[in-house]
């Protein structure tokens, strides 16, 4: 809980329970707004809402891509090794990276290109496969613990509105394992995507995003599309009174969807800190470190960028 959902953990830690914490936090935020006389603009400034973008989450990635500039983005490029000259004096060009490019446009990393700092956002299991050297000698990552990842399949289905007899309004349903067993359901939950974001489906249809897999159903996550289509249609029939077959199906399978934040995750974080401490100019960010939600991952990247700026500034001052 502490690492996967830091905001909930903070509530529990501060107030003794997540639910009590959520209520108290809400009450205290109401109190604050009275005290400050609502000095900040916007009535619901503490309100948490689901968010997305026109055209889906890919719009965010495309916007970042445009901002950085196409020539600075290397797609389909697997980092194989990183070398830090690490003379301990200058930050300038201390890092070099070798990569295998499968990018059809053939945009390879330039040979002998060097970098002042590195922000690593690949999952730790991938980092463990990379080769690191420090000052010419191998920097062995045997202190990184093995991280367990949860497999997941995502099924996007659309149904004609007239075939959905109980079209519930809201963001969706989450089905605890006990309820799955009790009612013979197989999905972990379903987002009512077109209820939240109407532009996601034609006017005469509803779009649903269902999740299958997780810790209790690891094998099911890897089942073929035809089987998962049947399971999802059957669950939605029970939940929403759906009749007939979907008009649209898209299946995406993640073998390693989420890092599993177990009881010993502190040791994972300690080993990330050890890497950052022993490799000058190396910073780690992403959902293996700072929480799973997209907002947490964005904050994690932003924090790493600030650390790089401080690192470069402090070394520039030393160089003078
Ligand atoms: C099915 C699903 C649904 C989700 N739904 C939600 C949701 O509704 N709301 C929410 O807030 N969060 C959701 N999440 C969680 C959230 O999307 C993730 O936690 C977040 O996107 C992770 O971002 P990241 O950058 O840390 O990691 P990733 O997005 O996993 O990025 C890691 C990147 O590293 C790259 N990489 C790996 N190895 C190498 C290498 N050797 N060289 C170069 N690159 C490499 C990978 O290709 C990948 O692009 C969902 C996740 C999944 C899987």
Automatic annotation (TrEMBL):
MF annotations from Gene Ontology: oxygen-dependent protoporphyrinogen oxidase activity
A Pfam family matched in the record: Amino_oxidase
GO BP: protoporphyrinogen IX biosynthetic process
Note on how the cofactor is bound: Binds 1 FAD per subunit.
Keyword list, A-Z: FAD, Flavoprotein, Heme biosynthesis, Oxidoreductase, Porphyrin biosynthesis
Keyword Oxidoreductase: yes
Residue ranges annotated for the Amine oxidase domain, each copy included: 2-308
Pathway: Porphyrin-containing compound metabolism; protoporphyrin-IX biosynthesis; protoporphyrin-IX from protoporphyrinogen-IX: step 1/1
Stated family: Belongs to the protoporphyrinogen/coproporphyrinogen oxidase family. Protoporphyrinogen oxidase subfamily.
Record-given protein name: Protoporphyrinogen oxidase
Organism this protein belongs to: Zizania palustris
């Amino acid at each position: 809980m502490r690492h996967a959902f830091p905001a909930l953990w903070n509530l529990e830690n501060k107030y003794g329970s997540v639910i009590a914490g959520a209520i108290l936090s809400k009450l205290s935020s109401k109190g604050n707004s009275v005290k400050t006389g609502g000095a900040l603009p916007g009535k619901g400034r503490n309100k948490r809402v689901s968010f997305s973008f026109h055209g889906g989450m890919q719009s965010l990635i495309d916007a970042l891509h445009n901002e950085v500039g196409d020539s600075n983005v290397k797609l389909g490029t697997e980092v194989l090794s990183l070398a830090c000259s690490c003379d301990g004096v200058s930050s300038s060009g201390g890092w070099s990276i070798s990569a295998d490019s499968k990018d059809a446009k053939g945009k390879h990393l330039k040979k002998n290109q060097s970098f002042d700092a590195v922000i690593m956002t690949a999952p730790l299991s991938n980092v463990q496969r990379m080769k690191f050297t420090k000052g010419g000698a191998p920097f062995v990552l045997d202190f990184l613990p093995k991280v367990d990842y949860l497999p997941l399949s995502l099924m996007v289905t659309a149904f004609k509105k007239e075939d959905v007899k109980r079209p519930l309004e809201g963001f969706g349903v989450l089905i605890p394992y006990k309820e799955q067993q009790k009612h013979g359901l197989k999905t972990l939950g379903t987002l009512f995507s077109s209820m939240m974001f109407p532009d996601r489906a034609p006017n005469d249809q509803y779009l649903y995003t269902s999740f299958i897999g997780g810790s209790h159903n690891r094998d099911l996550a890897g089942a073929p599309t035809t089987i998962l289509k049947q399971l999802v249609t059957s669950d939605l029939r029970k939940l929403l009174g759906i009749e007939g077959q979907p008009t649209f199906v898209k299946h995406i399978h993640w073998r390693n969807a989420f890092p599993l934040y177990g009881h010993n995750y502190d040791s994972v974080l300690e080993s990330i800190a050890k890497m950052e401490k022993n490799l000058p100019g190396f910073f780690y960010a992403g959902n293996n470190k700072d929480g799973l939600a997209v907002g947490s991952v964005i904050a994690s990247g932003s924090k790493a960028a600030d650390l790089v700026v401080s690192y470069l500034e402090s070394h520039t001052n030393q160089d003078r």
